[in-house]
Amino acid sequence: MKKLLLTLSLSMFIIAANAQKGNWYVGGNLGFSSSQSKIESGNTETKAGKTTSWSVSPEVGTFLTNQIQLGVAFTLTGSKFESQQNINFESKNNSYGGTVYSRYFFGKEAFKPFIGLNASYLSGKSESRTGGTVNSEITTSTLGVNANAGFGYALSKRVTALGSFGFLGFESFTRKPNDNTKNTTNTFGFDANSLGNRFTIGFYYTL
After folding, report:
1. Mean pLDDT along residues 124-153
2. Which long-range contacts (CB under 8 A, 24 or more apart) does 156-161 make?
3. Are the C-beta atoms of residues 204 and 14 closer than 8 Å to each other?
4. The model's pTM
5. Which pLDDT score, from 0 to 100, does residue 20 have?
6. Can you tell me the distance from the alpha carbon of 152 to that of 203, in angstroms, rounded to the nearest whole number?
7. Which domain does 168 fall in, by range?
8. 73 compared with 205, residue with greater pLDDT
9. Contact (CB, 8 A) for 185 and 173
10. 89-121: pLDDT as tens digits
11. Are the C-beta atoms of 44 and 2 separated by less than 8 Å?
12. Is the pLDDT of residue 1 over 50?
């Protein structure tokens, strides 16, 4: 089976390179991916299915002091799988939620390490259909808390790079199918990946 994958992601932030009390910033993330699966049998190649997914995460925050940053991000995500074989099957997943975070920066130079804390909640719904008939509906909810550390580096007066990684986290994931059953999984530990990628890096620009 072959799989072709197209991924597009965009991150943009507006933030003061030299953070001061009362400064506000806005930003966010956009993501899109599309994959196509194909099946090869001898000299024949047929399409198996197509998957598309997207995400939007606008963000806003402020500096309560010269060292303490407080922000909130809202998240919308969606994905869809379409079978391209004889069976008219498709599945959809959509979720929405938000994250509140705070960071404490050390130092007054261009390079500023920080420690932070994130808390997030995400609510979602999955649905599968065959020939227009609903096969299953599942609702999910995810609650996460994550301690992280990282750095901010002022590349210029207007551009700052910021990198972070999560090192300790808790996640509670609840899955509720349409048969009224309920499954909850709690995860706690070091290197927990409860709030996104273990390591992220972005660039900040001040107008």
Report:
1. 86
2. 156/17, 157/17, 157/18, 157/206, 158/17, 158/205, 158/206, 158/207, 159/17, 159/203, 159/204, 159/205, 159/206, 160/15, 160/17, 160/203, 160/204, 160/206, 161/201, 161/202, 161/203, 161/204
3. yes
4. 0.71
5. 72
6. 9
7. 2-205
8. 73
9. yes
10. 888 999 999 999 999 989 888 888 889 998 999
11. no
12. no
**Range 138-155 average pLDDT:** 87
Contact (CB, 8 A) for 192 and 170: yes
- Express each pLDDT in 47-60 by its tens digit: 778 888 888 888 88
User: Among all chains, which residue has been given the structure tokens 């699966």?
Assistant: 37
* pLDDT at position 191: 54
How many domains would you assign to the chain? 1
Q: Which class for 99: exposed (0-12), middle (13-18), buried (19 or more C-beta within 10 A)?
A: buried
Cβ(55)–Cβ(98) under 8 Å? no
Q: How far apart are CA 27 and CA 202, in angstroms?
A: 11
Tokens of 67: 């060292």
Give the number of residues written for the chain.
Answer: 207
Q: Which residue has the higher pLDDT, 135 or 71?
A: 71
Q: What are phi and psi of 176, to 5 degrees?
A: -125, 100
* CATH number, position 91: 2.40.160
Strand partners, 132: none
**Is residue 73 within 8 Å of residue 55, measured between CB atoms?**
no
Closest among 53, 37, 75 to 195, alpha carbons compared: 75
Contact 125, 140 (CB under 8 A): yes
